[in-house]
Amino acid sequence: MAEIINMPRLSDTMEEGTVAAWLKKVGDKIEEGDILAEIETDKATMEFESFHEGVLLYIGIQEGETTKVDELLAIIGEEGEDVSALISGAKEDASKEEEKEEATTEVESASNEDQDLPEGVIVVTMPRLSDTMEEGTVATWLKKIGDVIEEGDILAEIETDKATMEFESFQSGTLLYIGLEEGDTAKVDALLAIIGPKGTDVSGIAKNFNSEGTTDKKEEAPKPAETKKEVSKAVVSSTSSSNSNANGRVFVSPLAKKMADEKGINLAQVQGSGENGRIVKRDIENYTPAAATASVGKFVPTGQEDFDEVPNSNMRKAIAKNLAKSKFTAPHYYLNVEFDMENAIAFRKQYNSIPDIKISYNDMIVKACALALKQHPQVNSQWFDDRMQLNNHVHIGVAVAVPDGLLVPVVKFANEQSLPQIGAAVREYAGKARNKKLALDEMEGSTFTISNLGMFGIESFTSIINQPNSAILSVGNIVEKPVVKEGQIVVGNTMKLTLACDHRTVDGATGSLFLQTLKGYIENPVTMLV
Predict the structure, then answer these.
(1) Closest among 196, 146, 136, 140 to 171, alpha carbons compared
(2) How do strand 35-40 and strand 332-340 relate by DSSP bridges?
């Protein structure tokens, strides 16, 4: 049966989208997970994947055309299937779907009358802040109950599968109710908060609110004084009553309670990782009897099996998915080189002698790669099923380690920037990454990636390509070692680099020529200033 694909809502503020490029054409076979098109939103150009399988029977929006969210984008079905009736009725269907979506997820368009809400009261639900987001975690509330909210104020920081993002209010009023505590996770459209006139009783609204993936009532989180003791949010060990108060009450979110009932899990045996030991969704998902009842083995009286469990963050899940996809779809091969760093060391020392100037070796590598990529566009390319895209612009992603995994902020038009400008940009992005403040558009659009573990003492390593890039450069530390120069053994400084290439776009000779050009810039860095 044919499936209508509407223009998706790929950001929280997106009202319309433009088809930047179709990656499939009418008649192509579509597998679940295939990228159908690149959609330009109000924030970035993002890939849109199919959740259906079949044949692409119809394209409703051509490249370069713009349409509102929920308008007909494409139709997928069985080969030869007649979809004329679907096409003619698409506008009516899209309109109905838009009304349904607005009634449940669009705060700014919600109808108080339809929801029997008091005048001025707005129900705020968990927003969809990325194209792949299915659930979100409240990292931090920046407002508390009773605070006056102005339109544009940041209500909370929401952790998605891609990043932790600020969520702003589209209405003014008083924050009357908070439906999810810090650390709680819920599906998109779950009750997040209620805003309205000061003093309005919204207890009935909160009690009766219901959307898919949520329950009818949201219990308030316990106050610290109500609990026996605080427990670590990240650790699950042997059985404990730390998720209960002195009266024996178990503190559990409604969603977690529902899941526990469905799975037949005794909540008394579950260690809560939410605020003040509260049991939340992830505790039920990660619960195993062995985790709750680890005991001394019968034949090993001197030891005890024990472990800690840390729930996978949305970021960690996304990293795992993307890297696995890259590793098993792009045929990787690796080129290893070792560069003489004597001139680079001297150049950096002299450059940093200028007042108020400080550049790193990593800044020099970013600049050198950017210049080399302009001469070797094949390495600066992307692979698509029907074509190869050779990028004339150079946007370099710089991998930054964060507690939850790895983020890749992007230095745009790196070949056109000076070394100090590159250094300032990398430092700013690294700080934002560690504080989870990177915006989506600061992580989008890379054409090449650099991963540098030299500062951790790593001499050489290989990296997985950051798709849709065709290559990634792994940079080791500078090592002082004996080298041969003009027939004599002397003390020198060298650095090992490994270029991982996608063999679909970058042949061995192409990658080697790129590294030769890069070698010229690194070993003679003054040429980067010419």
Answers:
(1) 196
(2) unpaired
**Domains recognised in the chain with CATH numbers:** 3-104 (2.40.50.100), 107-208 (2.40.50.100), 224-292 (4.10.320.10), 315-529 (3.30.559.10)
CA distance 163 to 429: 13
**Nearest in space to 362 (alpha carbons), one of 319, 397, 412, 323:** 397
Task: Evaluate if residue 231 carries a pLDDT over 60.
Answer: no
Q: By C-alpha distance, which of 518, 385, 387, 376 is closest to 447? A: 376
Amino acid at 62: Q
Give the whole-angstrom CA distance, residue 12 versus residue 431: 25
Label residue 278 by pLDDT band (50, 70, 90).
confident
Q: Which of 321, 354, 302 is nearest to 464 (CA)?
A: 321
Q: What secondary structure letter does DSSP report for 431?
A: H
Task: Give residue for tokens 């051509």.
Answer: 62
Catalytic residue among 52, 332, 393, 503: 503
Instruction: Give the three-class secondary structure for 520.
Output: helix
Q: Which amino acid is at 448?
A: F
Q: Give dist(CA 294, CA 359) in Å, integer.
A: 52
Given pLDDT bands bounded at 50, 70 and 90, which one contains residue 189?
A: confident
User: Residue 393 catalytic?
Assistant: no
**Looking at 42, 114, 441, 507, which residue is catalytic?**
507
Closest Cα to residue 422, out of 409, 435, 432? 409
The overall pTM is greater than 0.90: no
Separation of CA 401 from chain center: 14
State the angle between helix axes of 361-375 and 419-434 in degrees (0 to 180), rounded to the nearest 10. 110
CA–CA dist 372, 375 (Å, integer): 5
Q: What is the number of other CB atoms lying within 10 angstroms of the CB of residue 258? A: 17
Task: State yes or no: is 503 an active-site residue.
Answer: yes
Cβ-Cβ contacts under 8 Å for 42 (sequence gap 6 or more): 11, 13, 14, 15
